[in-house]
Amino acid sequence: MKRRDFLKQCSAATSGLVLMNAFPSWIQAAIREENSQTYQSLFKIFTNPENQYRPFVRWWWNGDKIEKTELARELRILKKAGIGGVEINPISFPLRTDDMGKPSVDWLSDEWIELLRFALEEAKSLDMTCDLLVGTGFPMGGDFLEKEECSQIVVIAVKKIKGPLKTEFSLFDLYKEADPAITNPYSGRTMEMLEVKLVPDPLNHMDEVINLSDQIESGIIKVSIPKGDYAVYGLVKIERFMNVIQGAPGGMGPVLNHYNTAAVNKYLNRMSYTIQQKTGPLSPNIRSFFIDSLETEGANWNRDMMSEFEKRRGYDLYPYLPFVLFKIGSMGNTTGINIQYPVKMGKEFKQMTDRMRYDFELTKAEIFEERFVHTFAQWCRDNRIKSRAQAYGRGYFPMEGSFEIDIPECETWLKYGIGEDISEEKFTQYPWHLGRGNTMINKLVSSAAHLKDKKLISSEELTNTDMVFNETLEIFKIAGDQSIISGVTHPVFHGFNYSPPEAAFPGWITYGGYLNEKNTMWPYFKHYADYRARLSAVLQHSTMFADIALLAPFADQWSEYGAQNEPFPTLVSPAYQALIWESVHQNGNACDYISERVINDSEIKKGFLTYGKRKYHTLFLIEVHSLDPATAHKLHEFISNGGRIFCIEAVPDRSTGWKDYQKRDQEVQDWITKMQAFSDRFILLKKPASDFMGWYKTIQEKYDITPYVKIQEPKTFVTQVRYQADGTELFLFNNSSSKHSAVLDFVFDKSIIKNKQAWLWDAVTGKRFRLEPIMGRLKINLGPADSKLIVFDRHKKGDTWKENPLSGNDVKELSGKWNLEFRHYDGTVKHEELSRLADLKELPGYTHFAGTVMYRNTFQITDTSKADYLNLGIVFGICEVRINGIEAGSQWFGRRIYPVSGMIREGINEIEIKVVTVMGNYMKNLKDNVVAQYWTNQKRKDQPLQSMGLVGPVTVY
What structural domains and CATH numbers belong to the chain? Predict the structure, then answer.
């Protein structure tokens, strides 16, 4: 049933036999949206967001050692912390952890289903939304699968030899060489030698290859090597090669074959039937079925892979397959690309195999989309439940994989470097996207969602394997803001561990951030949850604007290197690819990625490339060499009708794939020649040696690419995104630096803001304030980790925005002795007196502190009219201020400036500053705590000590 039909039926029910509150809040909100797009104002949605817009968490059911009382307790903890929903995620029990003798409940057993039913009912009673993982761990699988239903891979083994020489190999030698070093191999995997070939090094032609496959049956390969360099190639098929990563009991075993429609259907239907025959329909108590990381680690085979290839591509790949494949390593990453694992190849032979490699990657991606993505999406529709998926990985379409998914998902990680200055040089080196929370895939997935007019774009967010116990709300905000800029409109935090309160400290931790009620920051977590909820609510009711499109050279990358492992590719080609979209946004424009399929399915209207509701007047080709002839034809139509194309570093000069490539190359070249006749609209650009942001600004100016907001002095750490909703314009600016401030001086395009009032909507407080631009020009101070949502609408009345100044007149620094009370996490309390504020990690005896520090002092004021603001200076942690017994509030990121008028009196004033620190330094010092040591001193080779406390200077002005 289609969503609209389903909602209409629900809506009819609300006016008849069924009451509205019988539905979960996400269904109620959708009904209201269906019945009345204007049932409440955008600002009301923003200031008081419903639970469906609140952040969700991944709720790890560790080892499925679950009990009803604990499930109920944890849901209430999450609700109190501002969480709106949970993704129920059964996973293996964490290592190095005492399970207290609690038994596991097998996935899909009657007992497990009863516990699931209970959790769904409890969540419903709390107005919380539930999503459910398909399977356990990732990727999905289980020991109940038949052999043909399990994932398969074909790999190569290469043994280099120098002749003349007579020698022999056992098949075992080649199997050992071929066995891929993946993350989690299945112990029951079986290998079959498909072919053995003797190959000269270098290889120039297939006629030089000697087939030795007739010796396979004997188990020994005997070979007489002529003088020179040679290699023996083994082509090996491995069945059930991979085990489910972190599967829980009942869902452990070999991974599913995602290229087998019948196997996928059988797996999915087994899950839904087994549960629903006990519970009845899961809809609407389950919002979505969720597919986690598709880390299939190089799976590339099904029994009909070669016949499907020949049917789709028009030739037989099998004889060339050993020379198309790379060696497979950890996480399915290809090795031997930059080192000579296979033999060297002559130029023409390499060009041939590169084209064939593209054809193989394309075929795999098509089959995956058809047999897995489509099958999964249809199963969800059949069960009247939304599909949510991370539909990317290795060998899948980075964009089109998300087209059919109801809730496409991105990934945003916490890593050291977020908030710090990151040079472009470091950005273009592995690991990619260093210093950014948003991963390489985010902009692609969100672009796919925009193209399909989807406003709910989720993200596995704050994934944390580096900074466990050192995460701060400020780091959450910086990474989360980067996630939003990349297109995310709803976070699913990664994650909340099912962990009974009696579990040994710090509890059951599978991995991920320490989101736990025992964390020092937990009492303040709702501040960040509220912030994200407000932004999610307003963005899900708006449409991201973009009129510039980017085409990445995926065809070239697939040809030369093979498909990469999104969201963390081993190779990015070109390495600067993501700097292009970042530079566009840093300079006041906005863009989407598109693909050749999108181009070919688009219409050309009045100089715009139009796809659904999206339309683009400008297209950047990022070092694109290869195009399908149909794409080149469509681009010529675009140019001819007034569109504009910028080719960065290269003009397309060849076709994709191998079949009839000479003829198809000529077609591409002919279309390119025709486009080059439009010299003002088909333009070759050289990439800069550095400063992509400044480079794009010069492109804007030279070629009249009008920004919708002109930023006078762009900064690499400041960027923006624009949304639109029912005559309302929304601009989100964010500062991703934890150190730098920026005075934003910008001018909005007059046509956008005509007859509208400017507002600053504060996502921290939910309040709005009038802004008074002069001729569309505004100046706003954006502090470290700060963000500003500027809105233009027709609302007129409200308070005027007053910025907290960094400093002022009659500045008084609080001096004298500070009395400190250290309330340690371990329950001890100590008192110290300091004449000078300092970073706690530098103070002997407090380097490994964790908990709360109370800073107390007094100061004298003779004229209260000169004491409007309190500036705490540098603070490492969450802070609260009390002046003369009056609460001034808590702050958790960026500048710590408090308006204090009315709190300060003439004469002596008492001030108390409470600072809550991170736990990491303390955890590093717990030498006998295996879990603490694993995360802070072992797993990531020694986490750095973190700064803590109030450093100041503290001033009043």
Answer: 1-39 (no CATH), 40-142+367-539 (3.20.20), 147-260+297-353 (no CATH), 571-703 (3.40.50), 709-793 (2.60.40.1180), 812-956 (2.60.120.260)
